[in-house]
Design a protein that fits this description.
With 231 residues, the chain is of the alpha+beta class. Helix content is 47%, strand content 13%. It has a single domain (31-213), classed as NADH Oxidase, CATH 3.40.109.10. It contains seven helices and four strands, in the order H-H-H-E-H-H-E-H-E-H-E. Strands 1-2-4-3 form a four-stranded antiparallel beta sheet, sandwiched between helices. The longest helix is centred in the first third of the chain and has 38 residues, at 3-40. It is elongated. Mean pLDDT is 90; it is low at 28-37. Bound molecules: flavin mononucleotide.
């Protein structure tokens, strides 16, 4: 083999080695990114399957950063015409939590009478006092899209807020927190208590905190009993 050919062959060899290194480095980088991503966020299906309602919270303070992430998940929800009818009130003040508890207790007593449900008497709502954070989700009745003009009044703003709430529960779970979608309250009384704008309705109080004990697993009916196929 001529001298020049040997040089060329060696150069080609070196170039291939460099390419191999680059490829292996790129593989490593994407692997690291995937790992980091996995470290940050649970995949959505796991969060959906694992999330359960928590009614026992530790008093540990929850970082504002986590609360921001939860609200950020809420606002990513779909809404009619992207009108985003939601607002959030983050409550950590113990006096306000006590007042919410007192109001929910009144509402529970009313519900026991109205429904005749005996089991409701034994349902404790003391977690409202111990949950470190309550996020009130309010919906703007004027931001409902076309269904504003339909018979039955505006409803879609509630659907959009429900989507936001579910996103929030899922991200709370992915962050290792327990959560509860709570609605046992008189909307007008909570509206006054939290000084909510006249056009907005409190739709849910989301309790968030570290779970004090394992959250019970609730069962679901088989999808075959809940699904109809039109082919
Ligand atoms: C619209 C709505 C209102 C709810 N209101 C309450 C409530 O006031 N109190 C409560 O303890 N749970 C409430 N829940 C939670 C349900 O009881 C719970 O989601 C259901 O039993 C299924 O259990 P899981 O969340 O553990 O899967 C509510 C859930 C939804 C979607």
């Amino acid at each position: 083999m001529a001298k020049a050919d040997v040089g060329l062959e060696r150069m080609e060899q070196l170039a291939n080695e460099v390419l191999r290194d680059i490829n292996s480095y790129q593989d490593k980088c994407s692997w690291i990114q995937i790992k980091e991503h996995e470290g940050d966020f649970m995949d959505v299906y796991t969060a959906i399957k694992e999330r359960k309602s928590c009614r026992n919270f530790l008093p540990d303070v929850i970082d504002n950063e986590m609360i921001d992430k939860i609200i950020e998940a809420g606002v990513q929800a779909p809404s009619p015409l992207n009108i985003q009818p939601w607002d959030f009130i983050v409550i950590t003040n113990n006096e306000v939590k006590e007042k919410i508890h007192a109001e929910a207790q009144r509402c529970k007593e009313w519900a026991v009478k109205a429904s005749g449900w005996k089991w409701l008497e034994t349902y404790s709502i003391d977690f409202l006092k111990s949950t470190p954070v309550i996020i009130a989700v309010t919906g703007d009745t004027r931001k409902s899209g076309v269904d504003e003009f339909e018979e039955g009044g505006p409803l879609a703003y509630q659907h959009a807020c429900a989507a936001a709430i579910q996103n929030m529960l899922l991200v709370a779970h992915a962050l290792g927190l327990g959560s509860l979608w709570f609605t046992l309250f008189d909307k007008n009384l909570i509206k006054d208590l939290l000084e909510i704008d006249v056009n907005k309705t409190p739709l849910a109080l989301i309790c968030i905190g570290k779970a004090a004990k394992e959250v019970p697993k609730t069962a679901r009916k088989e999808i075959a009993k809940k699904t109809t196929y039109i082919s």
